[in-house]
Amino acid sequence: MSNQEIFELMARFDASAATSFKLTTKDFSLELGKGGGAAAPVYAAPAAQAAAPAAAPAPAAEPEGLFITAPLVGTFYAASAPDAAPYVQVGDHVKKGQTVCLMEAMKMMNEVQAPCDCVIEAVLQQDGALVSFGEPLIRYREG
Fold first, then answer.
1. Tally of domains within the chain
2. What is the CATH number of the domain that holds 133?
3. Which of 37, 55, 92, 107 is deepest in the core (most CB within 10 A)?
4. Is 61 domain-assigned?
5. Any domain includes 105
6. Do 42 and 94 have their domain in common?
């Protein structure tokens, strides 16, 4: 199972009414849970090593600047079609409300729009990348 398939499964679970989900295959085990006030743990490990605790990744340094972030968990698309030009490129001046990219979740395309008149400084995601809620997509400066 690919990382993208796992993330899509997680997004569908999060949007569902189910409170727990467990999937075990020959190669790995995935257990999802959600509930009341506290966040439920999410585990994904090879089935043979399911009992071994996973090492926590080192926290990444927060990038500086203003960002357009992912409004949902989904797939990032820089253009409306694979052969189309990207919505924005570095150096572009965009107007408030202008579409800067698309996010796909559960076969629904969602336009992501510029929050203000701005200049694009960096596109931080690769076309087709799976991104999490709140993850930076595009860095910009007002102007």
1. 2
2. 2.40.50.100
3. 92
4. no
5. yes
6. no
- Sort 52 into a burial class: Cβ within 10 Å, 0-12 / 13-18 / 19+: exposed
For the whole prediction, is pTM greater than 0.85? Answer: no
Strand-strand pairing, 93-94 and 29-33: unpaired
The one-digit pLDDT tens for each residue of the chain (143 residues) are 676 777 777 777 777 777 777 777 777 677 777 665 444 455 555 555 444 455 555 555 555 779 999 999 999 999 999 899 999 999 999 999 999 999 999 889 999 999 999 999 999 999 999 999 999 999 999 87
Those residues with Cβ within 8 angstroms of residue 35's Cβ, 6 or more apart along the chain or in another chain: 19
Same domain, 93 and 118: yes
